[in-house]
Design goal:
By secondary structure, this protein is an all-alpha fold. It has one domain. Helix content is 65%, strand content 0%. It is built from five helices and no strands.
């Protein structure tokens, strides 16, 4: 039996073995799912697989979609406010 893992972990392994047609379906799934972590790893896996199955220049919008969900670093002002609010 396969051990269950969060989507943002399991999808990296699935991307690595997906065909071009499967990547098209995965793209729809990834772009409609909240990705809480592993943003850089998902993007890297996606780009590597697209280079293999092609066309590498058509990323289907996945890297931009995942990157947009990546948490932004807090500014110094936000860190101070967060500390004071505690």
């Amino acid at each position: 039996m396969v051990s269950l893992r969060p989507f943002h972990e399991a999808v990296i392994d699935v991307i690595a073995i997906a065909s071009r047609a499967e990547l098209n379906i995965l793209a729809l799934l990834i772009m409609s799912t909240k990705i809480p972590a592993n943003h850089d790893q998902v993007i890297e896996a996606w780009q590597k697989r697209r280079e293999i199955v092609g066309p590498a220049d058509d990323d289907l919008g996945v890297p931009a979609s995942v990157f947009a969900q990546k948490p932004k670093p807090m500014t110094e002002e936000e860190m101070i406010k967060d500390t004071l609010d505690r």
